[in-house]
Amino acid sequence: MPKTVTFFLKVKISRVAPMVGLAILLWAAPTAAQSKSDDSVKKDSPARTYFTDTVLINQEGQPMRFYTDLLRDKVVIINTFFTTCTSVCPPMSKSLQAIQTWLGDRLGKDVHIISISVDAEVDTPTRLKDYAQKYKARPGWYFLTGKKANAEAALRKIGQFVESRDDHSTIIIIGNLQTGLWKKAMGLAKAGDLIKVVESVLDDKPEEVK
Description:
Blueprint: E1 4-7, E2 11-14, E3 19-21, E4 24-26, H1 32-37, H2 39-43, H3 46-51, E5 55-57, E6 63-65, H4 66-71, E7 75-81, H5 89-103, E8 111-117, H6 125-134, E9 141-144, H7 148-157, E10 171-176, E11 181-186, H8 191-202
Parallel strand pairs: 7-8, 8-9
Antiparallel strand pairs: 1-2, 2-11, 3-4, 5-6, 7-10, 10-11
């Protein structure tokens, strides 16, 4: 049976492939041992097949493949936002800034923070760069836009697509692509509580292959 627990009624944990919970479908990645033993497994893993390499554009105007460049082998912290949001987005971004500080040099190396715009037609790379600078984003924290169809495709893969930008979720998704562990947390929770969730996912270890 899948292992499911609740963390302060804010986080649901599930380790099963495919995983379905709280309107999100995520496919577990292969273990690190499996990935290292066969590069073709990594290339055509269930995770890559599910997430796909839909191309998004980051705040520097650079194209990034959703799975290969952003997710593969990383612990990822994913939220949705838009640059003109004045309600829930600023406090969520402030919490992500605190998580960035806590991560230190693990950001960009072991962990990616991924903020995907739900207003791709308005949020150009220039707008995203200005927004990123406001929160002192360092390399490894990616603010993403792109063609409307591509942005929507990526959002659908993580269960975060909305018809109206104002209806976007305040959920933060934390996943470990090497172990297949995914958690969801309320993005408006205290930064300290969010850091505990991130730490638990970051510390998760791949199961041994028997």
